[in-house]
Amino acid sequence: MIYSLFKLLQDVDIPGARLMDYITFRAGVSFSLSMLIALIFGKYIIRRLQRMQVGEVVRNLGLEGQMKKTGTPTMGGIIIILSILVPCVLFGNLSNIYMILMLVATVWMGSIGFLDDYRKLKYHNKDGLQGKYKVIGQVGLGLLVGITMWLSPSIVMSRDSVEDRRSTNENIVIFDASSDTSSAVFAIENGNHDGIAYTRPEKTPQTTIPFVKNNNFNYEWLTGWIQDKNVANTLGWLVFVFVVIVVVTAVSNGANLTDGLDGLCAGTSAIIGVALAIMAYLGGNVIYSGYLNIMYIPGSEELVVYAAAFIGALVGFLWYNAFPAQVFMGDTGSLTIGGILAVFAILIRKELLIPVLCLIFFIEDLSVIMQVGYFKYTKKKYGEGRRIFKMTPLHHHFQKAGDVSVKCLVNFPKSPVPESKIVTRFWIVGILLATLTFVTLKIR
């Protein structure tokens, strides 16, 4: 709204009207506003939840300090969603397809999480919305995002492989690095060139992968054996849509499982959000992407405004969610956060970097899968179920004291680790993973 108003004011030459042209300015304002909304309105929302008796249902699992959390307000994800939506609506370009998709993803996953929390509170149990309905919602969002990226003419990318262009002698676009990004000079040449060069923006299911020269992978390569190019292209996009569905479902569920300790999911997600924001800024800037030899995605720079609001919302929410938590985000927050991170990574063509960047989420997912699978296997083989970890998801393993009477493969540490220390160490691991993600892009 304010962004559109300032665009109109440019026509009457009001001082300061062009500030909204700068992504960094709008991102800074969005970050500040989202954090203020979370800090100021968060306490009122928490009080409202307390009056409504929207308290967490806690089962006694023998964890230190666990039962003290009974009755703590949940559904605090409303604070996060509100703090994201308001700055984006005010300072975001609502005609930008990337911003539209992120706002849709936020509301979509927020609605699923809200329904899950509502059913838990209504029926006073931990079951909530049936798992199949959550998956249907996640698959639906994946389909929406994948098909939109396939069919929308506004979502294109430019390859930056100078070697490939020279070998194929194809047309390239030269951006004059001496000019401002918004007023870049275009020129078409063949062969050798100077300046920052890209192929013309094209509709292609390409993404970024680490450890490979030029870092690009085209899903059409998986269908290259098909002679008909149109059929190969269609199948390549279908593979891409399938990957989108898998990523959205996996990351959303991973974030949901990670939300088990005060500040764990919010802090870890904020770190991931910072890394994705940097990637979006670099990939959406023609000069920086050319200098770093990475994929240029026109229009994706608008995602930096969204990412800033997302990070500010999580930092503001941590004010109340840090140990000891005054409010829990619930599935309203965790499912939304996972969906946001997944869709954001997909839009900037970094979904194949998710296994490194979001490794904490996947380890939490994997620990549960391994625990359940091993328990069923040993029960069938030995007549009694055995465990790999003392408890899952993995963060609870460190909370639980070692017990020789419990048959599990990993029975250390013997003493329970304080919750705040577990959370801080997970944050440190998250920072290392974010750094490693950037490093992998330069190891070719």
- Number of discrete helical segments: 15
Class from secondary-structure proportions? mainly alpha
By DSSP, the count of extended strands is: 5
Distance between the termini: 43 Å
Strand content: under 5%
Strand order of the largest sheet: 2-1-3
Structural shape: globular
The percent of residues in helical segments reads 55-70%
Low-confidence stretches: 161-172, 174-194
Major β-sheet annotation? 3 strands, antiparallel
String of helices and strands: HHHHHHEEEEEHHHHHHHHH
Rounded average pLDDT:
85
Task: Describe what this molecule looks like in 3D.
- The chain is mainly alpha-helical and 444 residues long.
- Among the domains are: 26-154 and 235-352, no CATH class; 159-200, no CATH class.
- The chain has 15 helices and 5 strands.
- The strands form 2 sheets. It has a 3-stranded antiparallel β-sheet.
- Strand 4 and strand 5 form a beta hairpin.
- Helix 3 (77-91) packs antiparallel against helix 4 (97-123), helix 8 packs antiparallel against helix 10 (303-321) and helix 8 runs parallel beside helix 15.
- The protein is globular and about 70 Å long.
- The chain starts with a helix and ends with a helix.
Summarize the structure.
The chain contains 15 helices and five strands. It has 444 residues and is mostly helical. A hairpin with a 7-residue loop joins strand 4 (206-208) and strand 5 (216-218).
